[in-house]
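Table S2 (text version). Query chain:
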Amino acid sequence: MAQAVSPATKPPSNPPLQPPPKQQAANNDQPVDDQPVEEIVVGGSVASRFVPPFAISMLVHIVALLVLALIVTAPPKVEPPRLITSSSELDSEDIGEDVPEDTPQDEVTEPTTATNDVVLPETIVSVDVQVAPATDAVEAAAAEVEFSDFSTETAPTGTLLESVGATAGQPGGIGARSSAASRKQAVARGGGNEQSETAVEAALKWLALHQMADGGWSFDMNACCGGQCTHGSGSLKADRGGATALALLPFLGRGYTHTTGPYKEQVFKGINFLASLVVEGNGRMNGSRTMYSQGLAGICLSECFAMTQDNRLQGPAQLSLNYIMAAQDPVGGGWRYGPKQPGDTSVVGWQLMALKSGHMAYLDVDGNVIKKAVQFLDSVETDSGAAYGYVGPGNGPGTTAVGLLCRMYLGWKKDHPGLDRGVTRLAKMGPSKDLYFDYYATQVIHHVEGERWVAWNAKMRDMLVNSQVKSGHSAGSWYDGVEGGHGASAGRLYCTALATMILEVYYRHLPIYGAQSIDEEFKE
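Corresponding structure-token output:
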């Protein structure tokens, strides 16, 4: 993927979605400013005008100014939209564990019912963030931050926008998910098949059927469907925002939003529910248990804003990112359960992907935050960046996959020795029942392509297709056969969302290092 280049100016936003104004009556019986109106004959027809001569003078000056503007004003430059290649980074090495008692947490409150309209202002102005008072006492994120390159190193050359034939200035060039034709090409090129695509659609149907009346989702199957589906998560049932963001991301990965696709109503209600929680918390997602769900919300809102250019989403997306930036550990550069705590690699992955998604959507991201995050990755790497630990140097499978994916997005080239060794180790491990590891490792190996990807994909794809529930109320979901790792504690919604996004990898994430070759294939 090409290095994200910071624009001098952001592209113009489309006007907010709203009904067109009603046409005014041609004849208005109401007098204007009580001025006398006189009828005069022009060329045999009757016209009406104001008598005061200053009106004529004003009209002449306005016409003159408009003529001058047409002569001297050059058309604005149109800069192509950035390409979203990031996605949600899912649970930590200890998702099933309880948050330590000494972790400062805001009081968990029940979310309010979503309204029928997105709760965002129709006109977006500069976001002045004041984080709501809470026990963690996070200082407010700066409303205006400098836009800088996301990477501190040189990323591969080329642009993925060209590879999918996206038109400059138009939204929708998001990976290869912007149309059915581009998805079909990406599936064929990446190693997907008809069965994997059928599995994705079945999973989206299951997710849609388990959306709650207020527009959100829940990890608790008793709340979603009265317990007709088994294996909900009791420990995560209060985290409605995290469940909602996790459920929405597979729809966005498929290219379905509240403006496009067969699930517009479901996505609208879900994104409204999520945005409501963020707006209510002035950036912090109300009801969120930890920073895990905050990262998910940032990814989801940023992707949806980038895909739809719906200005009503700009405010909540920026608010969620500002809270993430303010919550960074000022010493070590990481993130963990609560704001400003020393970080762990899993939570860092979530927040970095949220900031990457926001940067690609032309939202404000502070470059200093990214530099500190790079310092955190340096502090937990081993073998010159080929492996990564959880809170210190190590080589855990899941944390290594997270660390390598972050390094890719932060600019490491394909031939970086540490990256190459790390990818080879992941490929030798092969897919497992731990969907957290599989989700990250699939993205990493897909980006490098080649023989390692071909072998990995065949096992990963077939395992998921064969383990998906095929009948009954749970049809389209996953749990049995993929519940290893954190799936057992996070439950069916978690397993289904991760498995679906793994099968969407062909078009959700175009290979970072294959931009030029893909571009040539599209031209043939």
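Notes on Table S2: The longest helix spans residues 53-72. Residues 1-51, 69-117, 120-173, 515-524 have pLDDT under 50 and may be disordered.
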